[in-house]
Design brief:
Shape: elongated
Strand content: 15-25%
CATH architecture of the largest domain: 2-Layer Sandwich
Number of helices: 10
CATH class of the largest domain: Alpha Beta
CATH topology of the largest domain: Alpha-Beta Plaits
Radius of gyration: 22 Å
Structural class: alpha+beta
Distance between the termini: 58 Å
Order of helices and strands: HEEHHHEEEHHEHHEEHEHE
């Protein structure tokens, strides 16, 4: 048995869950204790990515750590060890409180990935619906069930840090429902709420796993799209515009609304504020052009 096989044999027989991830957070090793604690076999986990969110780690405030604020990713970026308390979602659905220890993997002086060791933090098992309720209160819009402004802001900060470290491009989309105040005045706020819910449902069902879309506030929505160029960004925005235009709201007659959209690619000089502001201004350009259109830059 060589030294690598020996080390893996030792790690595989620890009572703590252990897994390895590469620099892009692809899981390459999942020990037997990790299988026992989480309910997931190694062959179900190895090869997937942290951001696939199978374990769906959240902290005590309900923040989804696998999507935003990932401590594994932070250790890969800055090379620091981290310790966190979190709730892991078992394969069967309940929540398990765990203590998480993370160490960067250094190869030839460079960070090549990270190791996470997780240990059950308490004998108590929390039902998934209770924890999901707390998570939804913190990070979800009450009306539409979509990510709320707080969640969107956290995700943008995560995408910005990823862009600065790995130069991974993305685009921000800003959308405003056209003439929404007039719609509310004519048909009532309850019908206006139905519009927002129906549009949100249409968009949720068509959003890729790599993208993110939520309610910014009122009739405004924000999307983050993993695209490589402005042409792909414009195509994504046009898809959203068509979905909105073709979402039907049942009434005495079928009602529909339109949306004006701005979408822009990240720049090296951007902060979260400048990126969102530019997308917002492009949305206003769509309003000036006659509404129900997109402006991309």
């Amino acid at each position: 048995m060589n030294s690598e096989q020996l080390y893996l044999s030792i790690v595989n027989n620890l009572s703590d869950g252990v897994y390895f991830v590469t620099k892009d957070r692809r899981i390459t090793f999942w020990n037997k204790a990790a299988e026992k604690i989480s309910g997931y076999r190694a062959d179900e986990i190895v090869g997937s990515y942290c951001q696939d969110n199978l374990l769906n780690h959240i902290d005590y405030s309900g923040k989804p750590l696998c999507v935003v604020g990932c401590p594994l990713y932070a250790s890969i970026v800055d090379g620091k060890q981290r310790k966190n308390e979190a709730f892991l979602r078992h394969k069967e659905g309940h929540r398990i409180p765990v203590m998480v220890n993370i160490f960067p993997i250094i190869e030839n002086g460079e960070i090549a990935g990270a190791i996470e060791i997780f240990t059950p933090n308490s004998p108590t098992v929390y039902e998934d619906d209770l924890i999901e309720q707390l998570s939804n209160m913190a990070m979800r819009d009450a009306l539409t069930g979509m990510p709320n402004r707080r969640y969107l802001q956290s995700f943008i900060e995560y995408k910005l840090s990823e862009f600065k470290k790995f130069n991974t491009p993305f685009a921000a989309l800003f959308m405003d429902i056209d003439n929404f105040r007039d719609f509310n005045n004519k048909y009532g706020h309850a019908m206006g709420d139905t519009v927002l819910k129906n549009i949100s449902e249409s968009i949720k069902k068509s959003t890729r796993k790599s993208d993110f879309f939520g309610r910014w506030g009122g009739e405004e929505f924000l999307g983050i799209y993993s695209v490589k160029n402005i042409r792909d960004a414009a195509c994504a925005a046009e898809k959203v515009r068509i979905l909105v235009e073709n979402t039907v709201i049942p009434y005495s007659t079928h009602l529909s609304v339109t949306a004006s959209i701005g979408i822009t690619l990240i720049k090296s000089s951007d902060s979260a504020e400048t990126l969102i502001e530019r997308a917002d201004q492009l949305m206003y350009q769509s309003k000036i052009l006659g509404k129900n259109c997109i402006t991309a830059l």
